[in-house]
Structures are given as C-alpha cells and as structure tokens.
Amino acid sequence: MATVNDLTNLFPAVEEKLARLDNDFPAQVEDFRQQLKIFQDAVSKKQEEGRVLSISIVGRVKSGKSTLLNALLFDGESVLPQAATPMTAALTFIRYADKCRAEVQFFSKDEWATFQEQAKKFDEFCLRARQEIEQEQRDAAERAKKKFQIYRPREITQTIIRDRVKQHLDITTYDIYEAAKEQVTMASKVSNSLPSFLGTTQTVISDVETTAELTGKLQDYVGANGRYTPFVCSTTVYFNDDRMKGYEIIDTPGTNDPIISRGKKTTDSLAKTDVVLVISPAGRFVDSSDLILLSQNLPLSGIKRFELIASQYDLAVRGNENKINKQLEPFDRLIEGMKMVQHELSDSFRSRIEEIISTAQKNNNADREKWERLAKAEPQCVSALAFILAKRWDRLNQEEQEYLDIFNEMIPGYQFDRETLEHFSFIDQVQERLDEVKSDKDKIIREALGALLDAHREKFTRASADFLTDINKRIFTLENVDVGQLQTALKEQTMRLQKGRASLEGVFEEAIFSAKTKFQSIFSEIRKAKADYARLNVQTESHTVTKEYQHDKGHGILFWRDITGTRYETRTRSYTVTTYYADAYEAVDQVEEFALRSRGELEGAIGSAVNVDALKNNVSDLVLDMFKDADMDTLELLKEQLKSTIRKITIPDADFGDVDYTTMITSKFSGSRIEGSSAIDELKAAQRNALNAVISDLEEKGKEKARQIEKSLHSAMDNFVNTLIADLRENTEKLTRDLDDKKNALSRLKACVKPATELKDIWN
After folding, report:
1. Which of 141, 179, 608, 724 pairs with 316 at a CA distance of 20 to 30 A?
2. Within 10 A of 764 (CB to CB), how many other CB atoms are there?
3. Residue 95 burial (C-beta neighbours within 10 Å; 0-12, 13-18, 19+)
4. Rounded to whole angstroms, how far apart are CA atoms 65 and 62?
C-alpha cells in the first residue's frame, strides 16, 4: 500500500515535468502546482498534529500530580517542579525544546485587584469572627462573675478565627478568599508596590543547560518562597530532555480558580488535548473538593478521552488493613487489600457521578455530557511513590528508606521487594493507557492521511490525464484546421454565446436567489437559538447560625434566684442565613458554546448556500447545449477553452475567524462566584449583552460575506459570456500564430506529449 511519503517523493519528478509544460500551458501548470501545495500543506498540518501526545492533568494540590508525571515520563526522577501551595498552583505548560527555557505570563492589574479585594473581604470576615468570639467571651465572663465563678478565656488563635469564618461561608467561597489572602500576603513580603511586569508575558529563564538547572531557577516563579510566585498566572516550561519528545503536559491549577480569564484558558486547553488525567487521592477519592474543581475546569465538550487516576494508593490499602481477612497469608492479604480498595473506589465514584448526572438531567444542565463521559472512566489505582522506590532500590536516601519502612508495615509479616513494589505501583497500567491513546491517535492520523492520499492521487491522476488530452487536442487542431476555419468558428461561437446570454444569466440568478433564501433562514435560526443559551442558574446556600443570649427567669420566690445566681439562663437562638449566588463560569460557557455553534452553522450555511461545482456543471451543460448542432470544429474548439474559463468561477470562503465574546463578562467579573441580587443581575445583563454581540457580529459578518458572494456571482454572471468570448478570441489568435509557424508549433507541442504522458504514468 502506498504511503504519503511515497506520494511526496514523486513531487520532484512531477515538478520537472511541469517545468517542461509551463511555456505552452501556463494556466494548467499553475493550477496543478496549487493542488500540490494544498496537498503538502494538509499533510504537514496533519503530521504535526500526530507528533505530540497532549496530556492534561486535573487534580487538587497535594494529589500527587507531579510525582505521578515524574514516574510516568522520567522514570521516577524529580524533574517536574511541584506547586508551592494551593494558591500558587499556576497553569503550567511543559514542552520539549532544543534549549531549556521558561516563559511566564503574569496576572494583569485587574486580576491582581481582584485578589486584593478578596483578601480585604477575608480580613473583614476574620475581624467580624474575632469580634463575635470576643463578645461571646465577655458574655461568658459576665455570667461567671454573677455566679462567683472564675472564667479563663482561651486565646483567640488564627485557627479559631478561621474556623468561625468557615461557619459563615460555604467551603468554595472560603477557599477562594483564603487563597487570595495568602497570595496577597505572600506578595507583600516581596514588594510594597504593584510590579511593572503585571499583564506581561516574558521569557524569564534562557541561560541554562540542564533540566535540573532550569527547575532550580523556576523556584523564583513557582516556589513557596519565590520572589515572583504570587504574581504568576501561567508558565510554559521547555525541557531539553529526550523523554519529553512526543509529549506536551498541561498541569492545571489545583484549586478552583478565582480568576475567570485563567479558568477559561484552562478549559480551552483541556478541550484541545488528547487525554485528560483526572487525579484524586485514593483515600479521599473524588470528594466534594474534586467535584467542585472538575465542575469548573472541565469544558462542556471537546475532551477526547478521560483517564481516572486514584493516586497515593498505598495509603488507602494501609488504611484498610484491619478490614482484610487475617486468616490469609501476608501476600494474599496484600492482594485482597488491593482488590478491596479498587472495588470501593469504583463503587463510590460511580454512585457519586450517577447522582450528579441525575440532577443534571432533571435541571436540563448543559454540563451533563461531561459527567456522562467521566462516568465511563474506570478508576486506575496508582502509587507513584512505590514506583520511585523500586527504581531507586539500590540508592535510596534516608527519606526514601523511611518510606520503604512504612510500606513494609502496611501488611504485618510482609516485606516488599523491588519487583513487587514496581508491580504494586501500577504505573505500567497507566503507561499502557497512554500508549493506547497514542496508538488511537496514530491510527486516526494515518486514516486521515490515507484519505488525503486517495483523494489527491485521484485528483492528480485526473489532472494529468486532462493535460495529455489538451495537448493531443491542440495537436489535432493544428493538423486539421486552417486559419479560415478558426475565424469562422470564432464568429459562430460569439454569435451563439451572445444569443444564449440571457439563459446563462438565468442560471446565475437562480444560484443567487437560492443563496439569499438560505442566508435569511440561517440568521433567523441563530436568533431563535439564543434563548437556549441565556439561562443562568441562580443557586442558594443556607447555613444555620446559632447565638447565645441570656434569658431572665425572674427573681423567684423571696428573690431566691438572685441569691443563688440562677435567675439568668443561657439559651441559644438559631436562624438560617441564605446566600444567593451564580457562577460566572457558567455564563462564560454558555456564551462560548453559543458563539461556537452559531459560527459553525453560519459558516456551514454560507458554504453550502452556493454549490459552486453544481453551478459550474449547469453553466457548462447549458453552453454545450447551445452548440449541440454546431459543426465539430466549432464544438471542439469551444470545449477546449470552456473548461479553462469555467475554472475562473469562484466565490469567497466562509471563514469568520475566532472571536472571544466572553471578554464582555470576564472584563467585568474577575471572580467566579457572584453573590447578591444586584451582582447577579449585572452578570445576567453581561451574558445577554455577550449573546447579543455574537448575533450582531455574526449577522454583520454574515451579511457582508453574503454581499461578497452575491457580488461575486453577479460579476460572474455579467462577465462570463464576455470572458469566454475573450478567451476564445485569445485562443484563436494563439492558434493562428501557431499555424503561421505550424512546423515549429507542432514540434513544440509533440515534445510536450512525453512529459505529459510521464506525468500521467507517475500516479499509477
């Protein structure tokens, strides 16, 4: 079976044949060369897609993402940097390059202002919590005093204050505000003013030779004490390590992203990758924090494949040791424990996801698709640490030896050896899954290249045959027609074409009318579809607040309660606080989906509004019908030129580009959680404005494109007959010149037969 390389290897020989034909058939040669370039560009693009396996990682901080990647790609070596803390886990792209370097995108000034505002609110929450606790302590001291008791208030620590704040906020909101506070605090330690580099993207490291040196210098930008860490939005790291060849890693932030613009960049990246590894610690597998993270980060559609990884598997087996049948041999107990954890993880995950899908179906949520696809993934347990210990078995450092000792305490009486550790890690299982993804991708690329090969081989074969036919027709004409016959044929052609002009214009007018009708229809459909993307779920969260108060029971008989100190009784009063909120990410997703769908439908409608091939065939058939009773010379001379003239009928393409309409939301709302009726109304208004912008922009572009197409068709209609007559006249003049020097002309044309024949035979 021929390959793409087999075909492209023919191109030098093809070009040599074309060069020998260029002088006599420049239009055909130029068309052939354009087809070759189209094929080469399409092949290059498809091959580039197949060179790199893109892997995205989704998982919260401390889930073992970096350790797993180091085990998978670098044989357990600590090559990839780890996130410093949850709030500094920037979006990270890791790629191969000939030279090690790193690029950093810093937060914009508006995004940093969002962090500062959230940090300020967190301070306010903490202040109110402290005041609340202090008041409770004063009340308690007063009660103790009345009872002649001694009250010793405990120290109000930051932990106590933050625990109280958590009672008033849902966990997601608390995490966002706490992360912002820690980020701003971290920034204040390195800079008292806003850095000038905010809002820029810079190559910050380039003068390094090794991955180890690059990783070390990166600590300034991703390390826990890095000078620039709090200001970094995303990093792109290029490693000169052959093991990175063929891979691109996208490591997503390990927390819910409070910055919408970066969150959108994350979902866009995930939608373009080949496989998404969802990583969650086996001991807390896909808990509420993971579900919140997945809800934000996973795009509504576009993900090709999920792989669900239960990391830190060894901890889960150790935690289940007391549930394992103690009558079994130690090794059998280990195997039983592994199976137990696997079943528990699968069952709990499936139950949790099915509940989410059921709720999504009831509420008709657009994100149901991604949960349904995730539900099909089978969790794979992994212990990257076990793999690293196995790989470093002969050179364990003190810390690694301590880890091995802990492993050996997992199942009483069982001691791990190197082989069992590596098997227990299940890294090979994950690698097999990635190899399967790579194999599937390679197959898709091969099939796409095969389709390209078949289509273009047929096209090149047909064009080559046409070439040879045109040459032989030209030779036949020169050998059998004189100048008088040429002039007579030209007059006959001109007369018949002028006579049939109205009929030809009718063919074009029919195409123009059909296009107008389709244009109007698609704009109406897009406007109707807007309502499906204008919904925004307003959710509620309620929590109970309990406060103490003093209840006066009265003096009692003979002021007994006053004397005994039992007059006042501490009671509690509870009330429910309800918070209304909306997710800005949902609004962004809705706008993006609407824009994508509308643009695709509009491009498809405009692209199919005029069937250019059908139009060309109709025009050709009508012209030939005008000459059905003409003499053979007139008809053959017409056919020779008609094909070339009809090739000139073209219309503009229907590509509208990629416009980001979501900036109408992200420019107004930096944070993701929108609370309060007023703010929610503003978000809804921004969403409506963005949807309207999609419609108005696409309508404007669509109408302009429709005008261009109609103008192109009108131009073709107005000029076709004149162009064909002019081309026939030019061809007649060329043939007349050749007849004046008939011997040399025939010699030249017959010399073209050999390269044209060779060109035709090349594709067989």
Report:
1. 179
2. 7
3. middle
4. 8
Q: Which of 544, 539, 521, 564 is nearest to 674 (CA)?
A: 539
DSSP assigned state of 399 = H
What is the distance between the alpha carbons of residues 554 and 576, in angstroms, rounded to a whole number? Answer: 30
Q: Residues 342-360: what's their mean pLDDT?
A: 82
Nearest partner of 654 among 594, 596, 722, 608, judged by Cα: 608
Q: Is residue 545 within 8 Å of 577, Cβ to Cβ? A: yes
How far is the C-alpha of 85 from the C-alpha of 355, rounded, in Å? 32
| Sign of the torsion angle spanned by Cα atoms 112, 117, 123, 129 | negative
Longest dimension (CA), the chain: 144
CA dist list (Å): 9 to 3, 357, 754: 10, 52, 21
Query: Other CB atoms closer than 10 Å to residue 596's CB: what's the count?
Result: 15
Q: In sequence order, what DSSP letters do the residues of 71-98 get, joined into one string?
A: HHHHTT---SPPPSSGGG--EEEEEE-S
What CA–CA distance (Å, rounded) separates 50 from 442?
Answer: 6
Rounded to 5 degrees, φ, ψ at 588 are: -60, -45
Beta-bridged to residue 92, according to DSSP, are: 235, 251
The answer to whether residues 553 and 561 touch, using CB atoms and an 8 Å cutoff, is: yes
What is d(CA 593, CA 289) in angstroms, rounded to the nearest whole number? Answer: 26
Residues 302-342 have pLDDT tens digits of 667 788 888 888 888 888 888 888 888 989 998 998 889 88
Query: Which tokens hold the place of 418?
Result: 């190197």
191-216 core/surface letters (b: 16 or more CB in 10 A; e: else): eeeebeebeeeeebbeebeebeebbe
Between 1.20.1540, 3.30.420, 3.60.70, 3.40.50, what CATH number should domain 53-75+257-425 receive?
3.40.50
Answer whether 437's CB lies under 8 Å from 247's CB. Answer: no
Domain positions in the chain are 53-75+257-425, 80-107+203-240, 108-198, 483-538+592-740, 539-582
Backbone angles phi, psi at 498, to 5 degrees: -65, -40
Mean pLDDT along residues 579-604? 80
Question: pLDDT (tens digit, 9 = 90+) per residue, 61-76?
Answer: 667 777 888 888 888 7
Residue 585 in tokens: 């990410």
Type of residue found at 391: K
Q: Rounded to whole angstroms, how far apart are CA atoms 290 and 278?
A: 9
Q: Are 477 and 735 contacting, i.e. CB atoms less than 8 angstroms apart?
A: yes
Please give the distance of CA 136 from its chain centroid, rounded to a whole number: 52
Residues in the chain: 764
Return the beta strands (E) in 14-58 as ranges.
53-58
Question: What SS3 state is found at 62?
Answer: coil
Which residues, in sequence order, are CB contacts of 695 under 8 Å at separation 6+?
Answer: 526, 527, 530, 598
Of 261-270, 302-311, 483-492, the range with the highest mean pLDDT is 483-492
Locate the DSSP E strands across 486-603.
539-552, 568-583
Tell me the two tokens of residue 365.
């949520």
3-state secondary structure 415-466: CCCHHHHHHHHCHHHHHHHHHHHHHHHHHHHHHHHHHHHHHHHHHHHHHHHH
Q: Could you tell me if 623 and 642 are in contact, meaning their C-beta atoms sit under 8 angstroms apart?
A: yes
Please name the residue that has the structure tokens 């017409």: 638
